[in-house]
Design goal:
The chain is α/β, with parallel strands linked by helices. Helices cover 31% and strands 14% of the residues. It is built from 18 helices and 14 strands. The strands form two sheets. An eleven-stranded mixed β-sheet has the order 1-5-6-8-7-9-10-11-12-13-14, with helices on both faces. A three-stranded antiparallel β-sheet has the order 2-3-4. The longest helix is centred in the N-terminal third of the chain and has 22 residues. It is globular.
Length: 566
């Protein structure tokens, strides 16, 4: 504990010192100096929300890909749950009854998914692995279909390229010389390996997952820090792959998974939200439980069942969704969980969490339970090193370094309407810049805490700015900005060999930060000041609706902020 405190404090002070010495030199990524008020800005900035959409839809080949891949992926996802009915063993095999129950459960789960049959947009082609092994990494409809296929062992593993996400929304890839070049360049690219697997959670539901390994990791003899990504509701793993792949590029092992009932995996919407309001400090019980079980699995720690497969009435009375079939979360050979086969590659002292929306609620609740020393089920909980929360937030103390990211037009909830940070409020999960800033300030009131904190708001962004859905409304600058700050957070606080330049970069403003809300960084946590990374000089329409006094102040200048200027 003492070593962790000293390391955290040293990194935070180093970041601030480096940043302060570079302010006078005008960092390359500095935002323009504060400008005089612009009364028209709140209206013209709305157009920025579609710049990412326009960029996606006008990229060469994107429109055709979206049409073809969208049809193919949704058709495959519609058919997949019925595959068991076409298997002769389901009707004539020695375990036919169990197979029939499994087939019925799969169909029920698909029908009662948060989005039935996982329908939605196809994967963004910039981040698709080469699942069909044909060497084509872009706009491959077959790869898009195979991304959700966990039944065919021939597509269990694939190669992927390291993305370099540019401020204009384009994506280059790192080549073997370490340069970022366009994907159609005739050059050799660095290639990581992604592998599909499953983790059985404590409710006996298999979670589909992937492990993303850096190039050469399996033969390196090294141990790598780890990131665990939990996607938002209606999202699949691939929909937030820009984060995990960006971390792998910096030397992390990445784990992605889909929570029970989410994406295209097992479970249904009841498994996501039941027992409603039944878990302290967690608005989305399924996400909070699944995040904890995945971290336990990484550490080869026991996953203790909380559902009795022989008593579904009792499970329902306990607030759980009944099921026809449950697996045993014990490790093989006693149960159905595979012991983490990559554990020797992982630095388990440096496991880091990030999530988007629903998934972010799950990861941002982790500090509350880590502070208690046990998980939701009362069992010991492995420690994590740092967290990045993307547009979804739980009430938890500053017990772990945590970075909050939101956007000017992110979804507001009760905190934004003046109802303060309800610790178990279902409707308080996503709170936009106003409520999230309030949560950040509440964390900073406990001056005994020293875990670093950061609060970031994207300019003219939406809830979709932290999702790599093709065509989702977002500021074209946001993917570069968001992934850069998130990976720098892990580079600074989430690995044994902390990168001092990444620590310093956390205090530098990138293009695309909000001009209506300050971005803040508290490297010493609540025990120290919160420094301004970017000072606002504009108003935004969300302020006109929810905080008219702020809107008036920002419209006439100087804009409202309470962080400490550097």
């Amino acid at each position: 504990m003492i070593r962790r405190f000293l390391r955290t404090t040293r990194h935070g002070l180093a970041a601030l010192a480096i940043a302060c010495t570079t302010v006078a030199a005008a960092p390359a990524h500095a935002q323009p100096a504060a400008q005089p008020p612009d009364p028209v800005y709140p209206f013209t900035q709305v157009g920025q929300l579609l710049t990412g959409t326009v960029r996606d839809l006008t990229a060469p080949g994107m429109a055709e890909y979206l049409l073809r891949a969208g049809i193919a992926v949704n058709a495959a996802n519609l058919a997949r749950p019925f595959a068991g009915l076409t298997d002769p063993l389901t009707w004539t095999g020695p375990d036919a009854q169990q197979r029939q129950l499994t087939a019925a459960q799969q169909i029920f789960d698909a029908l009662v998914h948060n989005v039935p049959f996982g329908a939605g947009l196809p994967p963004h082609p910039d981040y698709l692995p080469d699942w069909n092994h044909d060497g084509n990494f872009f706009s491959d409809v077959t790869d898009a279909v195979l991304d959700d296929d966990y039944a065919d062992p021939g597509v269990r593993e694939a190669l992927f390229r390291y993305p370099c996400i540019n401020p204009d929304g384009s994506v280059f890839y790192e080549n073997t010389d370490g340069a970022c070049v366009p994907g159609n360049t005739a050059t050799g690219f660095k290639l990581g390996t992604v592998t599909k697997f499953t983790i059985v959670n404590n409710r006996g539901i298999p979670l589909i997952a992937k492990i993303w390994l850096p190039e050469g990791a399996q033969s390196s003899g090294a141990r790598y820090p780890v990131t665990v990504m939990a996607p938002g509701a209606t999202e699949k793993q691939i929909d937030v792959a820009m984060y995990t792949q960006s971390a792998v590029r910096k030397g992390f092992i990445g784990i992605t998974f889909e929570e029970a009932g989410n994406g295209t995996g097992a479970g249904n919407v009841g498994d996501m939200y039941l027992p409603l309001l039944g878990v302290p400090r967690c608005q989305t019980p399924g996400a909070c439980r699944d995040v904890q079980d995945v971290v336990r699995w990484l550490n080869a720690a026991p996953i203790t069942p909380i559902a009795d497969p022989g008593n579904e009435i009792g499970n329902a009375l306990a607030g759980l969704m009944p099921r026809l079939v449950r697996q045993n979360p014990a490790y093989a050979p006693a149960g159905d969980n595979l012991v983490n086969p990559w554990i020797d590659l992982m630095d388990l002292d440096h496991v880091n969490l990030w999530g988007q929306s629903y998934g972010s609620v799950g990861v941002s609740a982790y500090p509350y339970w880590q502070d208690k020393g046990v998980g939701i089920d009362g069992q010991p909980l492995p420690r994590v090193a740092s967290i990045v929360a993307l547009s979804g937030f739980s009430d938890a103390p500053a017990a772990i370094p945590i970075q909050y990211q939101t956007a000017d037009f992110d979804i507001p909830a009760l905190g934004a309407y003046g109802i303060t940070s309800t610790p178990n409020g279902f409707v308080d999960a996503t709170d936009g810049p106003i409520g999230t800033k309030e949560r950040y300030d509440i964390l900073r009131q406990d001056k005994t805490r020293t875990a670093p904190l950061q609060f970031i708001t994207y300019e003219s962004g939406s809830h979709g700015d932290s999702i790599n859905w093709p065509g989702v409304p977002r500021n074209v600058l946001s993917p570069h900005l968001s992934t850069t700050y998130a990976v720098n957070w892990f580079q600074c606080y989430g690995r044994a060999d902390a990168d001092d330049s990444a620590c310093a970069a956390l205090a530098e403003p990138l293009p695309g930060l909000s001009r209506a809300f300050a971005t803040e960084y508290s490297p010493q946590g609540p025990a120290g000041p919160s420094y301004c990374v970017a000072i606002p000089d504009r108003a935004t329409l969300i302020q006109a609706v929810l905080r008219p006094d702020w809107f008036q102040q920002n419209q006439t200048g100087p804009a409202r902020y309470d962080c400490t200027p550097r």
